Amino acid sequence: MELESCCCEPLKVGQEVPEFELDTFDPTEGYFGKISLAEQKKAGKWTILFFYPADFTFVCATEFEALAEKHEAFTAADAEIVTVSTDTQFAHLAWQREEKSLEKVQYPMAADPTGNLARLFGVYEASSGLALRGAFIINPEGVLLNAEINFFNLGRNVDELLRKLKANKYLAEHGEEACPAKWTREGDKTLTPSEKLVGKVAEAMK
């Protein structure tokens, strides 16, 4: 399924993500490039799309700084963070150059000026032309596994996003198990659904 042909209902968790390609600004080298889902899948990487409203805004700067602080942890988990807004890659360059909160950013900043990708993921706000704060985890097979959407004025918890990534990676190898609410890393207790577990979750978590 191509991105151009997907114009109706937004994607749901569990669905395959259509192929897409975006122009980017790469702060590590200071150049413009492109990123595509096809290349991510070919490389066997998890993809985290991190939509945000606009460059040169305020809560966004705090989120970018938080992502930068955890970037190595995401990279170690075979994931690529891709931030996305409806700004151009030229605006991304200017913002990253001017805003000190972004000086340690090393992940690609992608441009979605048409809003097509934001529409696909259900975060496009037509009245403003901006994207809501959406965070989406896509596995190396191109399947959407997690979705989080916040309104413009609420920043996201990057530690929780990293926890979700690690949980999904663990479950990809241990599909018979389930990660409970307080699961944070491999080695923490998990649950194995069965008739024996019905009504006995408290005992199993001890």
CATH architecture of the largest domain: 3-Layer(aba) Sandwich
Judged by helices, strands and strand pairing, the structural class is alpha+beta
- Overall body shape: globular
Q: What low-confidence regions span 5 or more consecutive residues with pLDDT below 50?
A: none
**CA distance, first residue to last residue:** 46 Å
Helix content: 25-40%
Q: How much is the average pLDDT?
A: 95
Task: Count helical runs.
Answer: 7
Number of extended strands: 9
The structural domain count equals: 2
Q: CATH-wise, what's the superfamily of the largest domain?
A: Glutaredoxin
The CATH class designation of the largest domain is Alpha Beta
| Topology order in helix (H) and strand (E) letters | EEHEHHEHEHEEEEHH
Bin the strand percentage: 15-25%
Instruction: Give the radius of gyration.
Output: 18 Å
